[in-house]
Design a protein that fits this description.
This protein is an alpha/beta fold and about 240 residues long. The protein is built from 8 helices and 7 strands, in the order E-H-E-H-E-H-E-H-E-H-H-E-H-H-E. It starts with a strand and ends in a 5-residue tail after the last strand. Bound molecules: NADPH dihydro-nicotinamide-adenine-dinucleotide phosphate (NDP). NADPH dihydro-nicotinamide-adenine-dinucleotide phosphate (NDP) binds next to helix 1.
């Protein structure tokens, strides 16, 4: 049975991806930092779909924790077929007001998280000599740049570069590495954003739904997507 790790799957986009991958008959390793009861709700939903499911809890900005917990899970329960690097945070502020800890938190979580989560995962995937899938989450902000998000845009642009380079390294191992770059998706992350104002600039005149991002991730995890790698795929209602 194919196991997939979805980081940040206690809520929002990660939750929708985890459930959709379970519907596609993957066994799912859920992950959260603090919101265990929410992750347990998702665990129940996936168990009801008949797939195996467990929860790992760690902070993706903590390298030692990632290495220890992920390596132990792989040793005890087997290698992952794929990983969705979804967990992330935003700490928005115009650059003149942007505090050092807002810069550091966003870079350490979103960009260092790429290294911290994937480093313990990749070598076992290679050694398994099976096909594999890595999907990362960037953002329209990492492609176009966004006011008040210099920290977030930097981290999300970094993820695009890291994704493309890793794709080149892993292509001949039949492990694809792609990036999804969403526009505004209706989750807790955008609760304090001026949504009414932003929607005026979205050609589709609406927010995206987590399920729509999940459908794209599920396609990238499918057999049909095995020749798609090193790509950044936007899902944004036409905003860029
Ligand atoms: P949410 O804020 O709804 O959920 C974030 C998830 O990430 C939660 O599961 C949270 O865990 C987890 N998380 C946050 N920080 C850490 C950490 N340090 N260690 C471990 N887990 C952590 O976010 P969304 O679903 O909206 O976003 C998911 C991804 O999509 C993010 O990478 C985001 O940047 C990206 N994205 C979102 C867009 C949007 O409009 N919503 C647009 C473009 C990109 P816990 O619940 O335990 O706190």
């Amino acid at each position: 049975m194919k196991r997939v790790l979805v980081t940040g799957s206690s809520r929002g986009i990660g939750r929708a991806i985890a459930v959709r991958l379970a519907e596609e008959k993957f066994d799912v390793v859920l992950h959260c930092r603090s919101n265990l009861s929410k992750a347990q709700e998702v665990e129940k939903e996936i168990a009801d779909l008949g797939q195996d499911c467990k929860i790992l809890q760690f902070d993706i900005s903590n390298r030692e924790q990632c290495n220890e917990i992920i390596s132990k899970d792989i040793e005890e329960n087997g290698v992952y077929f794929g990983v969705v690097c979804n967990a992330g945070i935003a700490r928005d502020n115009p650059f003149p007001a942007l505090e050092g800890d807002e810069w550091d938190d966003v870079i350490h979580t979103n960009l260092d998280g790429f290294y911290n989560v994937l480093k313990p995962v990749i070598m076992p995937m290679i050694q398994s000599k099976q096909e594999g899938r890595i999907v990362t989450l960037s953002s329209v902000s990492g492609i176009a740049g966004n006011r008040g998000q210099v920290n977030y845009s930097a981290a999300k642009a970094g993820i695009i570069g890291a994704t493309k380079a890793l794709a080149v390294e892993l292509a001949k191992r039949k492990i694809t590495v792609n990036c999804i770059a969403p526009g505004l998706i209706e989750t807790e992350m955008i609760e304090s954003a001026p949504v009414e104002e932003i929607i005026k600039h979205i050609p589709a005149r609406r927010l995206g739904q987590p399920k729509e991002v999940a459908a794209l991730a599920a396609f990238l995890f499918s057999d049909e997507a095995s020749y798609i790698t090193k790509q950044v795929i936007s899902i944004n209602g036409g905003i860029v």
